[in-house]
Structure formats: C-alpha cells, structure tokens
Amino acid sequence: MSVRVGILGATGAVGQRFIQLLDGHPTFELAALTASEDSAGRPYREAAKWRVDSPIPVDVAEMTVRETTPEAVPDDVDLLFSSLPSSVAVDVEEDFARDGYVISSNSSNDRLAEDVPLTIPEINPDHLDLIEVQRDERGWDGALVKNPNCSTITMIPPLAALDRFGIERVDVSTLQAVSGAGYSGVTSMEIIDNAIPHIGGEEDKMETESRKLLGDFDGAAVTWHDMDVAASCNRIPTLDGHLENAFVDLADDPDVDEVADAMREFPGVDLPSAPNQLIHVFDDPERPQPRMDRMRGQGMQICVGGVQSTDHGVKFNCLAHNTVRGAAGASVLNGELLVENGYL
Ligand SMILES: NC(=O)C1=CN([C@@H]2O[C@H](COP(=O)(O)OP(=O)(O)OC[C@H]3O[C@@H](n4cnc5c(N)ncnc54)[C@H](OP(=O)(O)O)[C@@H]3O)[C@@H](O)[C@H]2O)C=CC1
Ligand SMILES: N[C@@H](CC(=O)OP(=O)(O)O)C(=O)O
Which PANTHER family match (predicted)? Predict the structure, then answer.
C-alpha cells in the first residue's frame, strides 16, 4: 500500500527532518511541500536553508513549494505531516481537517483538547480512536492527531514501564539541546559557555501532556493519570538530544533490577519507523550521553541510565533525539499507526 503524503512547514528545522525520514519510506510517498508565502512558488532547494546531516533527496530539491492552504494541496494527498509554528497551525490544521485531510501534527496547539488524540504508538495507541469522537463533534471527514512535546516524549516510555509499581509523583529536570529552539531560537552569544534555566511554556507542557498520555481512554474521553508532575527545564549547548533527570515516587517498593527489567522488557510496536526495542537501559552510570546515544535506534530509541532506588521510589536519567523521536519521527510513527488502524 502506498499513501501520498505532504508536509506543512516543510522548509523549517522539523520539516527538513520529515523529508529525511520520509526518503525511501516503505509506505509514504512525498507529494506536496508547503511553507509561508515567502517560500511558495520556489523550488524547495532555494526556499529551504538545508541543514540536516544528509543531502536533500534529488527529487525533493526540485519540488515546488506550495502555499499552506487546502486549495494548494492536491486532493489525492491523504495524509499531512505538520511542523508549522503553533500560532499558525491552530487555524490552518483545522482548515485542512475540515477539508478532509488527516493530519499528524507535531505543533503544540490542541494537544490537550479533549477530542484530539495525543499519541505515542508504543504507549497509548488506543487513544487514536478519539478520532471517532472528534469526527462526531466537529463534523470533519479528516482528522487531527498530535504527538507530544519533545521533553515529554523522552520521559514517558520509562514512566509507562514504571506505572505497574504505581506512580504517585514525578520530579524531572531537563538539559535540552539548542535545536529544540529552532535554528534562530537561541543565539551563539547566549548559549556558548552557558546554560539557561528557563524554556518558555516547556514545564507546563511536561506537567500536563504526560498525564494525558498515561491516562485511560474509555471510548469517549481520556481520564488523565492522577500523578503529580513537577518539571524544571534548562537549555544547554548540545546540538541535538534532550537529557533528563527524573525522580519518581512509587506506591510499591521495587528493587533496581525489577525497575530496569520492566523498562528493558517494555513492548515495542511493529511499525516501519519503530525501534526493535523501545527502551535501552545502560548499566554504565555515565550513560546515556547526548552525543553518543541520541542516534540509537535511528534516533527513535529512548535511552535510560543511572537507575537507583530512593526513599520513595526510583531515580533515573533518560535521553531521546529531540527532532527525531521528539518531533518528526514521532509524527511519522503516528502516521504509520493511522494507516495500521485503518484511518487512511
Ligand atoms: N525544533 C524542534 O526540535 C522542535 C520543534 N517543534 C515544533 O515544531 C514546529 C516547527 O518548528 P521548527 O521546524 O523548529 O520551526 P521553523 O521556524 O524552523 O519552521 C517553521 C515552518 O513553518 C513555515 N511557516 C512559518 N510561518 C508560516 C505561515 N504563516 N504560513 C505557512 N507556513 C509558515 C515556515 O516556512 P518559511 O520557511 O517559508 O518561513 C517553515 O517551513 C513548531 O510548532 C515547534 O514548536 C517541536 C518539537 C521539537
Ligand atoms: N520547546 C522544545 C521544542 C518545541 O518546540 O516543543 P513543542 O513541540 O512543544 O512546541 C524545546 O525547546 O526543546
């Protein structure tokens, strides 16, 4: 089966990752690229300042960038990946869904909307069926599906593995790469020889999205997990890969080996972009490290290390590639789940 796909916001940092990940994809055939009015009408190679660590695919380089409107995208495109600024996406994504397109979006708008699935295929694939509720309520033929924030997605797989021991509270502190802010988000003068102990909106996203992701879906609505989550977010001068230190209070008292085994054995999914093993647990206390470990599982694996018991539960470190597993890769995986579950 081949599905014709497009990318909204294709010239940006995440849009370029989409192009890289879709090159040679077994199911998805890239058929449309959109961006702002400044880029529309230009060949992609001219409109995009290409910065990904592999060449622009030859056929993509010559594609003409389109306007980001439903009229500008061919009708035979079934699935759109969205990496628009959220201020733009909030209206535009709804226009496309109303027009019949299915959208797998990485932008932060609407992630907490009651009828919008916020999905990680290995964690809560059942939440995808919120699409039925969404279509009933909004009268759409299309659909809007979201993946979480990059810092949130990094800690969720290990937390999902721990939930069998009864998570009561999570305290997490992040060390986030500069690519998370986009290419012009943090200047070199701000970040070299430095760390910035604030990332606007990020703590709130981690504290809320995590509870929706680990919540229960009863076929009509998601009841959020009742754990307390407190996050502290920091920017550091790594290029890619968010590292996080998590402290988790548990109802039960598992030993370190039980915790590590629960993470190692946490099941993956059989989708083209999914890693064979979702969580890699290091015994070496100096791992994971961003530069060494962010590309494990082609950037889609979650790395964990430093698992230790505490008075109230466990602590560990976790790492994921923020623009692959944390952004474009997460949307592509959701697209694969949409195909698998018959939504396309
Ligand atoms: N960078 C990262 O690691 C992560 C980013 N995200 C989220 O993904 C989204 C994209 O981020 P990123 O790729 O870094 O952003 P960029 O600024 O690099 O790219 C934005 C894209 O949107 C297009 N665009 C901007 N304004 C408009 C408009 N008015 N109409 C149509 N298209 C427009 C741009 O086109 P043009 O080139 O023509 O201006 C470009 O293609 C954001 O919502 C961000 O929060 C999420 C997780 C990680
Ligand atoms: N805020 C993230 C990147 C991002 O854009 O997240 P979101 O997808 O929630 O907008 C970072 O700075 O690393």
Answer: ASPARTATE-SEMIALDEHYDE DEHYDROGENASE
